Amino acid sequence: MRDALTRLGIEGDPLVRAAQEEQFGDYQSNCAMVLAKRLGRKPRELAVEIIAHLSIAELCEPPEIAGPGFINFRITPAAMARRLGAIPAAGHAGVERLGIERTPRPQRVIVDLSSPNLAKEMHVGHLRSTVIGDCIARVLEFAGHEVLRENHVGDWGTQFGMLVAYLRRIRPEVERNPESLIIKDLEAFYVEAKTQFDADDTFKAQSREAVVALQQGDATTRRIWQAFCEESLRHCHALYGRLGVRLVDRGESYYNELMQEVVARLEQRRQDDPNSAVRLSEGALCVFLEGFKTRDGQPLPLIVRKSDGGFNYATSDLATILHRVEHLGATRIIYVVGLSQKQHFEMLFAAARKVGFVGEEVSLHHLGFGNMLSPGGKPFKTREGGTVKLRDLLDEAVERARRVLQEPREEDWSAGRPDRASLADADMQRIAETVGLAAVKYFDLSHALGSDYKFDLDTMLSLEGNTAPYMLYAYARIRSIGRKAGIDFDALPATDLVLEHPAEIGLAKTLLRFAEVVQVASDELKPNVLTDYMYELSRAFSRFYDKRLGVRVIDASPETIRLSRLRLCDLTARTLKLGLDLLGIATLEQM
RNA sequence: GCGCCGGUAGCUCAGGUGGACAGAGCAUCGGAUUUCUAAUCCGAAAGUCGCAGGUUCGAGUCCUGCCCGGCGCACCA
């Protein structure tokens, strides 16, 4: 299509995409209508001309023009077989990428994700950033970019003075042996400290002193603080480990010196040009930006140094940008943070550009997401109104998964299905863990990022519909086919594909769309594009394997057909596995 | 008050730069089945896409106004 447009001397996007309905073919192009409008011509005439300049005879049937000027393409089974056949087989280079190429223009990308506060336990509010951020990082990495996952944890501020002082009071041994620190329940520890802080003026004073000591670099205080942060991070990483999330922790404290640098640079700017956007206002050092107003309609600046001389969120965020651009060499920074922070990031980015911290060559992107709500549609809280720990949420999901998985076991015994019924309890626990976590992650990623969603265990653990269990089942089932057919998929040679039956063609068609789907998901940073496809692929497979409308596989004959169908199974399994991997979801060989 | 995001089938949600009668899952109803893992497949019913205007050959999608919900609006992160 692109060539045809070029030959016609027309610039424009071919707008080719999978057809919405089967009657319109496999792919459709809507460009004739768009271009005709621009060129002041009749859409159908232009469509005719475009078709005349196409050279796609060996790819598809002669294209048809329909309606106001749609161009419909129907790929020939032979062409599908060729394309699928070109996907590297087991043992060949590129098999793990299914032949999908890397971007020709790799970037160094920072994904800012998770970012819990170390003073407390991670709670449900951290789930989305962690899961989405990890997925985005995986997708961009797969696309060929160099991705750095930065966990901007909160490890600084007044509350840490309080925590250090409290540790000193009730665990004095920490001072001598900071490495030994274990805090079972971080949340309870914080609450205790806070209660003490509010009730005890002496303790309050000690807390303040600890903050000062921390800032001045007092060795003992820092050791205790560090011990606390490390213990808190161990709590975090227990969860990251379960979730299969890798990231690099870099606390706010890391930027202490850079924050001085940020302020110094801005101060310089202000003094060089008193009329610049950087000005003092009510004693605070501010960056004034266009388009932002306070409640009263006054200009709303980004405050970079408070009137008391202290730093705030904006200061550390600017320092972070400086670090990422100047030290880490990032050309793209993606913040996976809730949508409620939207204005803050707009101001932050505008300010960073205004004061020259980042140039045109660097893109700053706030990938905002909606709230995770309780099943009732209200903010997610415990019955008492407190925050729900992320660990508790995941535990519950796993426990519920275990119950769902165990339900049919009794029947399996009587139905003579030892495949599932014979699973040892340990295996069952492992499977439940995978399924439970997969369900939570998949459910999150299957919603459009910007919208809120209701956390509903029943729905996400359902064995039917667009859920992780359905997808994992589809995968496990295919792997089981390999075992039963006595074929090692990991040693299956490249075979000629035979695509004759509608079920074969339907599956092949869906398989071929994977590369494009990954491309869209990666370009637009939309995980749900991927999940939607995964579901379609799983369904296409179920149809393929259906006893009435599908085809025989394990006992198919002749052997060429059998191998072809097994290869389709394998391609499906590999695609599912890769797709799930991009979502950050582990697969199971058996469930 | 200003700004941003959302309002799509009974429920939960999709809808790539405006495009072919608005899609899916659950739930409902009806089929298939002595299973190559039925944890499946096929089909039906179900929506004036918040409301009212406008732009366009064509609007869930763009513009304006209004209604409803959420979030944000200078020294908290």
Question: How would you describe this structure to a colleague?
Answer:
The structure is a single chain. This protein has 591 residues and is α/β, with parallel strands linked by helices. It folds into 4 domains: 2-75, Gyrase A, domain 2 (2-Layer Sandwich), CATH 3.30.1360; 158-246, no CATH class; 254-369, 3-Layer(aba) Sandwich (Rossmann fold), CATH 3.40.50.620; 390-583, Isoleucyl-tRNA Synthetase, Domain 1. The chain is built from 22 helices and 14 strands. β8 (278-281) and β9 (284-287) form a beta hairpin. The longest helix has 25 residues, at 219-243. The two termini are 45 Å apart. The mean pLDDT is 92.
**What CATH architecture of the largest domain do you see?**
Orthogonal Bundle
Mean pLDDT figure? 92
Total helices: the number is 22
**Order of strands across the biggest sheet?**
7-6-5-11-12
Could you say what the CATH topology of the largest domain is called? Answer: Isoleucyl-tRNA Synthetase, Domain 1
What is the 3D shape? Answer: globular
Structural class: alpha/beta
Short description:
The protein has 591 residues and is of the alpha/beta class. It has helices at residues 2-7, 31-39, 43-52, 77-85, 127-143, 158-170, 186-199, 201-215, 219-243, 256-272, 313-327, 342-354, 390-406, 409-414, 418-421, 425-445, 457-460, 468-484, 502-512, 514-524, 527-545, 559-583, and strands spanning 16-18, 27-29, 64-66, 70-73, 108-112, 146-151, 248-249, 278-281, 284-287, 302-305, 332-338, 363-369, 372-373, 453-454. The longest helix is centred in the middle third of the chain and has 25 residues, at 219-243.
